[in-house]
């Protein structure tokens, strides 16, 4: 069982979310701990499952993926598992959520231009209905909800 987060743990997570490459000493300065103490807390936060891993934020535009699309996918009867496999096997899908409502999946797709949509989505049409919206801009990327210590 995970130990509850305290205020300092919440502050460390928030600092890391803003800049995952910050040194332990710099994190410590912001939260009032020594670098080694921050390192110990980070180790504990990872072991307890609060921190799943560390990574880089990649600029998709710089890699040539200038457009993102939100695609809602509703598998036809008996095609749920086949459609899910198709989504998993198509590397242009950045994310996929199973949802309630008329559609079963809401996905995010990275493409270089709108013409690529046909190449990617046509194979789905035998097994599912798709509804696509082009992302014009993002107000913000994925972010943490407010963190509160658990008492």
TrEMBL record:
CDD domains associated with the record: HTH_ARSR
Domain HTH asnC-type: 5-66
UniProt keyword Transcription present: yes
Any Pfam family: HTH_AsnC-type
Keyword tags: DNA-binding, Transcription, Transcription regulation
Protein origin, superkingdom: Bacteria
PANTHER family the record matches: ASNC-FAMILY TRANSCRIPTIONAL REGULATORY PROTEIN (PTHR30154:SF51), LEUCINE-RESPONSIVE REGULATORY PROTEIN (PTHR30154)
Protein name: Lrp/AsnC family transcriptional regulator
């Amino acid at each position: 069982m995970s130990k509850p987060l305290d205020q300092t743990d919440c502050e460390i997570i928030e600092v890391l979310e803003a800049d995952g490459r910050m040194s332990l000493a710099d994190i410590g300065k912001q939260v009032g701990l020594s670098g080694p103490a921050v390192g110990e807390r980070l180790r504990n936060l990872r072991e307890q499952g609060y921190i799943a891993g560390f990574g880089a934020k990649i600029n998709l535009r710089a890699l040539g993926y200038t457009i993102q699309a939100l695609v809602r996918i509703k598998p036809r009867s008996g095609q749920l598992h086949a459609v899910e496999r198709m989504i998993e096997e198509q590397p242009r899908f950045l994310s996929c959520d199973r949802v309630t409502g008329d559609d079963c999946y809401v996905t995010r797709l990275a493409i270089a231009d709108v013409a690529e949509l046909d190449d990617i989505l046509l194979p789905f049409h035998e097994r599912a209905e798709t509804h696509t919206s082009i992302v014009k801009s993002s107000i913000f990327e994925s972010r943490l909800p407010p963190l509160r210590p658990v008492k």
